[in-house]
Amino acid sequence: MTTSRTPRPREYRNIGIGDITLKYRMPLAAILSILHRVSGALLFLFLPFLLFLFDQSLTSELSFEVFKQFLSNIVVKLIVLALSWAFFHHFCAGIRHLLMDVNHDAVSK
């Protein structure tokens, strides 16, 4: 009597974020895409804060002086630097994504 073997189903396993970041080497395009999303989220979250600061700086001369003192803080300078990076990265990566939508040869290897 022959015993027929049924093929074993493919085993799936859960992987964590540590497995992805430490064991797998993501391509540069994937890293840029993730950073594009992160920079967009940063810009979206900090937009009300930036609009409030802009409004306060335009209200009067006194509020502008307070705004200048506020910007002299090193933590605020770092936040402004991070938001500037987010804006420029998001802008450049967005142009790249638009070029990929129009013509993939423009961004091929």
TrEMBL record:
Record carries keyword Heme = yes
Which terms does the record give in the GO molecular function aspect?
Answer: electron transfer activity; metal ion binding
Principal localization reads membrane
| InterPro entries in the record | SQR/QFR_C/D, Succ_DH_cytb556, SuccDH_FuR_B_TM-su
**Which NCBIfam families does the record match to this protein?**
succ_dehyd_cytB
Localization (cell)? Membrane
* Top-rank lineage group of the source organism: Bacteria
The answer, when asked if RNA-binding is one of the entry's keywords, is no
Explain the purpose of this protein: Membrane-anchoring subunit of succinate dehydrogenase (SDH).
TM spans (from-to): 34-54, 74-99
Q: Name one GO cellular component term.
A: plasma membrane
A Pfam family of this chain: Sdh_cyt
- What are the record keywords, sorted? Heme, Iron, Membrane, Metal-binding, Transmembrane, Transmembrane helix
What's this protein's name?
Succinate dehydrogenase cytochrome b556 subunit
Task: Provide the species name.
Answer: Burkholderia multivorans
State the family named in the UniProt similarity comment for this chain: Belongs to the cytochrome b560 family.
Cofactor requirements of the protein: heme
Quaternary context: Part of an enzyme complex containing four subunits: a flavoprotein, an iron-sulfur protein, plus two membrane-anchoring proteins, SdhC and SdhD. The complex can form homotrimers.
Q: Name one GO biological process term.
A: tricarboxylic acid cycle
